Amino acid sequence: VIKVSRNPSKTWIMNQGSLTSQRHLFDLPDSKGGLIYLNGAARSPMMKHVLAVGTKALGRKLKPWTMKNEAENRTKELFAKLIDSKTSDIAITPCTSHAISLIAHNAMKTGKVSGVMDAVLVLQNQMSSNVLPWQHLCKSTGAELLVAPAPSKPGKSWTDSVLSLDWKKVKIVAMPPVLWTDGSVLDMEKIAEKC
């Protein structure tokens, strides 16, 4: 038996491989109609308590001048501790694509990627938010966008594909630890060693 609780007043108990109905936690139609919603990826239903927390957080924007940075600073502290870093190394941005665009822009402005002798490494079928900024950078500087192809042979992994490429010109590696299209896991430690 595993007990899961984010709120001391509510504890969910999960028995090995089974879960009791959690329908009451969501705003779903009466189950008598037979509705079962299984898209738990991009469009999973929001839990009622998440809506309440989100509504409260949005309410703070009614008077933004009263908002303090304490929660943001605490988040940075905790994340820095998690990855064994300094708080000053952590930046909070509105979304990942915004952060990646900033990084790509700064890589160009600082000369980290400056021309045909440089390359940025991405994956085939990678999420566009982590490809489009690098495409723009490469087009603007003349650098190469090096794309690791999907593994074509049984037993080969994305990591194998990435490591088999010519890395002589690679200045930036922009890839996720898990590919969004199929859940493939990349061995980031091996890739980091190659860097």
Automatic annotation (TrEMBL):
SUPFAM superfamilies: PLP-dependent transferases (SSF53383)
UniProt xrefs under InterPro entries: Aminotrans_V_dom, PyrdxlP-dep_Trfase, PyrdxlP-dep_Trfase_major
Start and end residues of each Aminotransferase class V domain: 69-194
A Pfam family recorded for this sequence: Aminotran_5
Name the UniProt record assigns to this protein: Aminotransferase class V domain-containing protein
